[in-house]
Amino acid sequence: MSRLNPQMHPLLNSPVLEALLAKNIYTVLNFIETEIKHIVAITNLQYKEVLGIRKHLINKYAAVTRDGVSYYNEIITKSALFSTGIKRLDSILQGGFLTGNIYEICGLPASGKTQLNLTLVRNVAQNSILNVYYIDTKNDFSGRKLKAVLDASKTDEEHVKQIMSQILVKKVDTVHDLINTLYEIKNLLYTKTIKLRLIIIDSLPPLFYSISDFSKRYGLITTMVNVMHVLAKEFHTAIVVTNVLTTSYENTSTEDISGKIGLGKYWYNVPNTRLTIKKFENSSECSIIIAKSNRLLEGAQCNVKITDAGII
Fold it and tell me: Which residues are in the RecA family profile domain (predicted)?
């Protein structure tokens, strides 16, 4: 459901929105589900005014009934399978990324996750005229690093400029920033301001580490996942999310390291496909394994190499 903003109704001005957000009323659905007298108390609006906003939001954002055949035809027409630009990875993914899906790349620290993301950004932008949206939660996205990857792959200067212009980068510091950014992308796609097939979020766990309250964290993850599903399904994008493996050691041998996915049990079943990346010791090579998928062969894997020109 859409996030509340001033464009939705003249009475939803900044002070009113701030008062609503302070009470965890973020979306149209939150607003409609909350008792009118409660919103009156929060915002100091009159009962009639709140009722008018409520009716307007219901009329504008209520679900529209669709028949199954037309919905199926839309999916067939607008869905796309696009290459990652990494041949061996494409092979185990049966062609590349499929829109409508959420993919997760997880691995230990320094296993090559960000290098893989940069390679995906470069390859998808290089092989299409579409935008790629990169959400950076760690504040470590580097335009220079991406340009170095492009230069190392012997891309000419004119093409480098074109590719860089197709990549949209947003740095976020909190979960709320991330959710707002996802809603912004939704609005950009709805108004056809951008043409987008791939959204990368690098990475999720840093935003949630500081939230100790389980119910609050669960609620925020649920809200985030709902928007991600809308972006993937309704706007036919593929979403790639980076996650971490937390480790436990049975003993001192590296062979006895076991990994646990970040963000807990609820998140575990959210991605359609989970890829685990593991870097070989004292080597530039790493393996990518399909650890979980509702469409692809689980356990399928490939070996790739980290180079100055990205992952190949």
Answer: 78-245
Rg (CA), the chain: 21
CA angle 9/11/17 to nearest 5° reads 90
CA 39 to centroid of chain Cα atoms? 32
**Quick one: 223 exposed, middle or buried, by C-beta within 10 A (0-12, 13-18, 19+)?**
buried
212/131 Cα distance (integer angstroms): 36
* pLDDT given for residue 287 in this prediction: 96
Q: Which residues contact 129 (CB under 8 A, 6 or more apart)?
A: 166, 195
Task: Give the model confidence (pLDDT) of 84-100 as tens digits.
Answer: 999 999 999 999 999 99
Nearest CA-CA partner of 276 in 238, 311, 302? 302
Question: pTM here?
Answer: 0.78
pLDDT value, residue 228: 95
Give residue limits of the domains in the chain.
Answer: 6-61, 72-311
**Residue 312 CA: distances (Å) to CA of 66, 90, 105, 119, 236:** 43, 11, 16, 9, 27
What CA–CA distance (Å, rounded) separates 306 from 312? 7
How many Å apart are CA 23 and CA 17, to the nearest integer?
A: 10
Parallel/antiparallel/unpaired status of strands 131-136 and 167-171 = parallel
Q: 72-311 belongs to which CATH class?
A: alpha beta
